[in-house]
Automatic annotation (TrEMBL):
Enzyme class: oxidoreductase
InterPro entries reported in the protein's UniProt record: 2-oxogl_dehyd_N, 2oxoglutarate_DH_E1, DH_E1, KGD_C_sf, ODO-1/KGD_C, THDP-binding, Transketolase-like_Pyr-bd
Assigned EC number: 1.2.4.2
Organism placement in taxonomy: Eukaryota, Metazoa, Chordata, Craniata, Vertebrata
UniProt-recorded name of the protein: 2-oxoglutarate dehydrogenase-like, mitochondrial
The encoding gene: OGDHL
Subcellular location: Mitochondrion matrix
UniProt source species: Astatotilapia calliptera
Family according to the record: Belongs to the alpha-ketoglutarate dehydrogenase family.
Keywords for this protein: Calcium, Glycolysis, Magnesium, Metal-binding, Mitochondrion, Oxidoreductase, Thiamine pyrophosphate, Transit peptide
Entry keyword Transit peptide: yes
Any one Gene Ontology cellular component term annotated for this protein: oxoglutarate dehydrogenase complex
Amino acid sequence: MSQFRVLAGVLKGGGSPFLRWRAGGLTWRCWAHPKRGCSSRTDPLPAVVSNSSYVEEMYLAWLDDHKNVHESWDSFFRNIQASGPSGEADERRPSALLQGRVLSHSLDVAEKVVEDHLAVHTLIRAYQIRGHHVAQLDPLGILDADLDSFVPSDLITTIDKLGLYGLDESDLDRSFQLPHTTFIGGQETTLPLREIIRRLEASYCSHIGVEFMFINNVNQCQWIRQKFETPGIISVIVSRFEDFLARKWSSEKRFGLEGCEVLIPALKTIIDKSSAAGIDSVIMGMPHRGRLNVLANVIRKDLDQIFCQFDPKLEAGSGDVKYHLGMYHERINRETDKNITLSLVANPSHLEAVDPVVQGKTKAEQFYRGDTQGKKVMSILMHGDAAFAGQGVVYETFHLSELPSYTTNGTIHVVVNNQIGFTTDPRVARSSPYPTDVARVVNAPIFHVNADDPEAVMYVCRVAAEWRATFNKDVVIDLVCYRRFGHNEMDEPMFTQPLMYKQIHRQEHVLKKYSEKLIAEGVVTLQEFEEEVAKYDKICEEAYTSSKDEKILHIRHWLDSPWPDFFTAQGEPKSMSCLPTGLDEEVLQHIGQIASSVPLEGFNIHPGVSRILRGRADLVKSRQMDWALGEYIAFGSLLKDGIHVRLSGQDVERGTFSHRHHVLHDQEVDKRICVPMNHLWENQASYTVCNSSLSEYGVVGFELGFAMANPNALILWEAQFGDFHNTAQCIIDQFISSGQAKWVRNNGIVLLLPHGMEGMGPEHSSARPERFLQMTKDDPDHIPEFTGDFDVQQLYECNWIVILLPFRKPLIIFTPKSLLRHPDARSGFDDLAKGTKFKRLIPDEGPASQSPGQVKRVIFCAGKVYYELAKERKQQNLDRDVAIIRLEQISPFPFDLVSEEVEKYGNAELIWCQEEHKNMGYYDYVRPRFLTVVANKKPIWYVGRDPAAAPATGNKSTHLNELRKFMDTAFNMSSFQD
């Protein structure tokens, strides 16, 4: 008896288990017994057995039925019988045969069989991993979709490559056992090598290229294999719409879809399949190419409303070009007979900027509907190939896809791969082989498909919709197509891509090719096809005639978030009255007590947090509040009224400056947390506070989209430092500041930007208030006249701010840093009591206000510098000579209140003091408005830091010297005298 020593178990990646052991001086390698094989690399054989007894057991099983053992054992025993001396085969025991030359020869044969099977399994895996590199994806047939002409060496494209696997031409007709990791056999478990290669090429190297083997989930990989390997797996309106636009408006830019007409049936297939799976709301984002076609033929916008947009004499309407606009529409899905709501979000020419906005809007709809798994609401994002590869916001958005507070439970991405970016060849536009490689970062499967093969496209779209419904993860469809005309219809592409466009000019339209195929197959007749074309042409002509009667564009047609209970049908607020914001004492006390306690029993908090909570409790007892407690009370009072509050950003749960602590962490139990604000009231709205990824562009866009969905919610994004908002400048400039003017896009997002000069350097000081003020639309040379409440009317007319009002505007708050713990930066509960409201301007209430006629100087300021001015005034004993007035609302400028203060202190000179440099901060904004208030009859002097290139110094000594200098100037009564 001798002991077997297992050297290997099962093959990696699956397949039949095999044994490899050493015994009697020989190396054994064979397929395991079907009933007693190894299940892992370390499993021993069932017992200590002799060579002959184990083989005898296998031999007896073979004698009962040759199919009881693997083909390798079958071959082994057949060879033994054929080679053995006469009569020995009749002994029905192989023991006598396991000797000398016969044994050695038989083992060699068996090992060769096993090695050939392993080679075929490796070949199958090679096609699964790299088959997409040789797929026929380019409809023009001139480029490689992956920017590389090489053919992977491990793919069998010629007979001579069989040698790489130890095989030759004679093996092509040999049958091989198929591994469990492929479905190419269907119901068959063995196939000839020639047929294996043919089926692999059909699955992975035809008009569909599949990238998925990087996914680290076996079940997901198997799911995809089944969809593309199973044997046998594998439109008129779009084209005519583009032809009609080209005929009627030949000199207009429309960014048509020619060359990728298949996008429309592709989207319809995704929507139909998703609708059948239960989806009833789809939020979409896309660049300008094909937008008009999507609006017309997917969302079903009225054609006359689209056509009237081409009329240069249109009297009113949106402030943007037609191919940037959005839409919201509810209709019946004819495939499922279910209602479905389709929303296309407006997008600027910053192509991928809309990506996180769509995700935020989708997340919000899921949140408010309680759709935690994304079974009712989903998103579809369309991209261009150059933008998908080149713009960082794509990567930022992908990284939100599985974060708990940001996931939308899977997005279907459709890349319209023109194989060109404006005039730039992809070979100099990206370093990655495919434009879609960024999606691999989240293990999203990528389906490349030749856009001139409609049936392949439709199949891929159905699989993508099933993937999203099954796994709730992102998936990418890469429609490899071309752009029949230039970047727009006025552009000449032959300047830069002459060879490509020579081929494009020869390229038959996909409609023509596919219609001829269907007619040839007898699916439709030529007459039926021509009738469909004529029918759609008639629809377009009738809409064109009707569009000439449209003198004004209806705003409702371009809303992607209509807010029906908030606005009238004309887009006006249903009320213009300002609601009171003060609170009862018991409400203030209750919120304050929760803010300074831990509502969960047995919860272990950090000693430092305990001290902070005790400090809050002391403030509540004294009816005082600092910034953190004031924020707590503001949020809590909204939650009481059923208003959802969502605060997002880097480190917002604790707060960058360790002041907030809205999420408490148990110091003993991992992942156990407490959010006290969700324990305020029994039937309160929910409070969402969530740390974000280290992203500004993507997260600000996401929160903007979230705020679009519901006007009765407070959505806030806080920067770690206010300076960092500049990496989200595209969202701020293109959506937040101008969204209402361009797209009638109402939004109440709040940006919290920590701001203040403390000698901490240029990247931790300034939120760049001058940029926001520059984008404010109020006129510095005109004091507006309103018949109603001045403050409410002024807010309604401006482009950003928000308080508790019957309309929504974005709000920019320059939040404090050092003032979070400043002993003088406090308010009493009386400031928030019933009957109180936000103060746009805080007048001086000290001795100077008692004798305004004696005041020599009035200093207007905003923010932290007030406390430094107040301290300096007290030290110099100038309380009666100098008044200090704070502007709490910088924009829109409080003309009415400033006029009252200027008139009150009629004999005083006027100063604007700021800690920011002269070319930054508020000065350039407030100066012309002050001069308008005084009708240019007296100057307003500047006090502050000198102009500079950087927002702040990083040297503490320099910082203090600058502060000392402008403090001296502010209170030197002769500094501005002639």
